[in-house]
Design a protein that fits this description.
It is a single chain. The protein is mainly β. It is built from four helices and eleven strands. It is globular. It binds flavin mononucleotide. Flavin mononucleotide binds next to strand 2, strand 4 and helix 1.
């Protein structure tokens, strides 16, 4: 038997992603969970950002951004970037994160994150509380130490984690199933 609950964002688990973007004064980082791969060819992602977020105007204005996937080593930084505003904080400096140059877009990558995905916005849709940014993936960077001899991603070494909005909890990824 299941208990019916009111409508909510109940898809779990969710990614935790650090979106980095250039800005007029300094670059910024915003933590996002409303993020998904939505098309394989051309590789396309969507992100949902509330219009009132400081980052929203930056992402809209720049038209380009980087999605950085943190490992558990960047957990505290992910919480910080998701609870403080770039209006009042230099999140790169305060989280001890290093901006590095992307190859295809004018936005900083986060050096410490094991995966960085360069994106260019193609469409923006207003959905209500959040605006949906549809973006094409222009390049993917993966830490060398996480690639095996065939260039395949070694998830066991990556120490990734996930967010569950139903219980507002973070969980580290466990064992491989297959
Ligand atoms: C785990 C987590 C996930 C989040 N996901 C989103 C999201 O998908 N969209 C959004 O607009 N805000 C999201 N937030 C909230 C923003 O990260 C937060 O409001 C942040 O402080 C905004 O930064 P800014 O003012 O520099 O833009 C999330 C926060 C956390 C901690």
């Amino acid at each position: 038997m299941k208990r019916e609950k009111k409508p909510s964002t109940a898809v779990v688990p969710c990614p935790v992603v650090l979106l980095s973007v250039k800005g007029p004064e300094r670059p910024n980082i915003i933590t996002l969970s409303w993020v998904a791969n939505v098309c394989s060819k051309s590789p396309t992602v969507v992100v949902g950002i509330r219009p009132e977020r400081h980052s929203h105007a930056m992402v809209k204005e720049a038209g380009e951004f980087v999605l950085n996937i943190p490992s558990t080593s960047q957990f505290e930084a992910s919480v910080f970037a998701g609870t403080r505003s770039g209006k009042d904080h230099d999140k790169f400096a305060e989280c001890n994160l290093t901006p590095s140059k992307a190859t295809k877009v004018d936005a900083p990558m986060i050096e410490e994150c094991p995966i960085s995905i360069e994106c260019r916005t193609k469409e923006i849709h207003s959905l209500g509380a959040h605006d949906l940014f549809v973006a094409e993936v222009l390049a993917v960077h993966i830490d060398d130490s996480l690639l095996d001899e065939h260039g395949r991603f070694d998830a066991a070494k990556a120490s990734l984690f996930t967010y569950l909005p139903l219980s507002a909890e973070y969980w580290a990824l466990g064992e491989q199933m297959e």
